[in-house]
């Protein structure tokens, strides 16, 4: 709630709690906690003192516990990292797909502080056979299509898990992690869609095979065909993407000068260029870019000032290009579960 008693977030579902950030009004590099989107598969877990212990299990089923106070005493990293839900912008898919009908606000970013996961693991735990690391959250419940009660659980391939920027985070914007965002620990996996950033982390398991589970090999898979499950592949790296923040869609503007602005981000390399069109894609102009400076992962901000002399309707588009050569497509990559929407961002305005 804000000081007017109005909600800060847009509710998509209450139980479990799924709420969107007011992304069109977020101008800071660090989203204040009360504006951070919330994405949950299950009701919030009930935490107790045992949640302050992280369980590490190696390939031989040997267990070890690490307490929060031990993490606090270790060297930490602080990184500005956006979390984007794989279902962000899902509402734009046509034909429609099941799942939360997210618009553009299932993304937020801020400063995460934690211990690089690789520094928490012992050499003896990482044997030659180790293939993946599995992360389990403290939340659980029934999942349609799956027997019984299951926890939220996912794995990472070894090279991503051991990347120096993959963190076991315990602070957001210099404050202890809030309960809704994973207190006391969550994983932060830069450059990947946020399903990988497991909240309420309680168990880390090193395995010598490929993990499968409902949140790994059923959800968070792209199924590109409408009528069969063939050609499926896992959701991992963020697509190159941008969002027009202002003007808002369906705005009525006075003729004269207006600033078009927004954010752009990618999971591969950096944003190299953002192009804006005022004529629904016939001509494009480069926007001015501004970068936060302290992180390669941060979204960038872009803007362009334009004089609207003629009255009438305009379709404004933004299109980001990253240093790996990826460009936002004109039309989205449709898939059954509606992940990874990254078609050009579009608003329709009227100038009078
Ligand atoms: N334990 C647990 N971790 C989780 C989830 C969850 O439901 N349970 N949801 C994931 C998904 S799909 C997203 S998009 C992000 C959302 O993080 P947030 O609620 O802090 O914004 O957390 C990820 N980590
Ligand atoms: Mo998500």
TrEMBL record:
Alphabetical keyword list: Metal-binding, Molybdenum, Oxidoreductase
Keyword Metal-binding assigned: yes
Gene3D superfamilies in alphabetical order: 2.60.40.650, Oxidoreductase, molybdopterin-binding domain (3.90.420.10)
Stored Pfam families: Mo-co_dimer, Oxidored_molyb
Names of the cofactor(s): Mo-molybdopterin
Coiled coil start-end: none
Domain Moybdenum cofactor oxidoreductase dimerisation: 235-351
Classification via InterPro entries: Ig_E-set, MoCF_OxRdtse_dimer, Mopterin_OxRdtase_euk, OxRdtase_Mopterin-bd_dom, OxRdtase_Mopterin-bd_sf
CDD domains the record matches: SO_family_Moco_dimer
Protein's UniProt name: Sulfite oxidase
Protein species of origin: Mesobacillus maritimus
């Amino acid at each position: 709630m804000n000081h007017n008693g109005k909600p800060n977030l847009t509710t998509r579902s209450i139980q479990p709690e799924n709420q969107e950030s007011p992304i069109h009004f977020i101008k800071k590099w660090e989203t204040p906690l009360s504006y951070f989107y919330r994405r949950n598969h299950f009701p919030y877990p009930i935490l107790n003192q045992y949640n302050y212990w992280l369980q590490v299990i190696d390939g031989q089923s040997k267990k070890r516990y690490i307490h929060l106070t031990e993490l606090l005493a270790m060297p930490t990293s602080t990184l500005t990292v956006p979390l984007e839900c794989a279902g962000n912008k899902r509402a734009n898919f046509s034909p429609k797909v099941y799942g939360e009908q997210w618009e553009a606000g299932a993304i937020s970013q801020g400063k995460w502080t934690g211990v690089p996961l690789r520094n928490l693991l012992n050499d003896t735990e990482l044997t030659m056979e180790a293939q993946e690391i599995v992360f389990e959250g403290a939340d659980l419940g029934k999942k349609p299509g799956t027997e019984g009660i299951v926890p939220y659980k996912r794995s990472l391939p070894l090279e991503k898990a051991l990347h120096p920027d993959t963190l076991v985070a315990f602070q957001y914007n210099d404050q202890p992690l809030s309960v809704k965002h994973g207190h006391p620990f969550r994983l932060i996996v830069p450059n990947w869609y946020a399903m990988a950033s497991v909240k309420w982390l309680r168990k880390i398991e090193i395995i010598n095979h490929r993990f499968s589970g409902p949140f790994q090999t059923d959800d968070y898979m792209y199924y590109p065909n409408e009528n069969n499950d063939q050609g499926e592949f896992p959701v991992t790296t963020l697509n190159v993407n941008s969002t027009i923040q202002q003007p808002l869609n369906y705005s009525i503007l006075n003729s004269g000068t207006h600033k078009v602005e927004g954010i752009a981000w990618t999971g591969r390399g950096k944003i190299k260029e953002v192009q804006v069109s005022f004529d629904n894609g016939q001509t494009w102009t480069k926007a001015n870019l501004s970068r936060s400076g302290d992180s390669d992962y941060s979204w960038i901000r872009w803007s362009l000032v334009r004089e609207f002399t003629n009255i009438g309707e305009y379709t404004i588009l933004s299109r980001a290009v990253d240093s790996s050569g990826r460009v936002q497509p004109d039309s989205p990559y449709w898939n059954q579960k509606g992940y990874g929407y990254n078609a050009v961002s579009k608003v329709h305005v009227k100038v009078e």
